[in-house]
Amino acid sequence: MIFVADNLHIVNPVVEQAILHRDPGPIRDLVTRCVAAGAQAIDINPGPLKKDPEAAMTFLVNTVATATDLPLLLDTTNAAALAAGLAACKNPVIINGFSLEPRKIETILPLAKRFDADIVGFLLDERSRVPVDVADCLEVAGRLLAAAEKAGVNPARLIIDPVIAPLMWENGVRHNRAVVEVIRMLPDLFGLPVRAIAGLSNLTTGPGPKEKKRTAEVAFLAMLADAGLSLALVNIFHHRTVDSGAASEHLLRSDIFSWEGV
Amino acid sequence: MIFVADNLHIVNPVVEQAILHRDPGPIRDLVTRCVAAGAQAIDINPGPLKKDPEAAMTFLVNTVATATDLPLLLDTTNAAALAAGLAACKNPVIINGFSLEPRKIETILPLAKRFDADIVGFLLDERSRVPVDVADCLEVAGRLLAAAEKAGVNPARLIIDPVIAPLMWENGVRHNRAVVEVIRMLPDLFGLPVRAIAGLSNLTTGPGPKEKKRTAEVAFLAMLADAGLSLALVNIFHHRTVDSGAASEHLLRSDIFSWEGV
Question: What is the top-level taxon of the source organism (chains A, B) (predicted)?
Answer without folding.
Answer: Bacteria
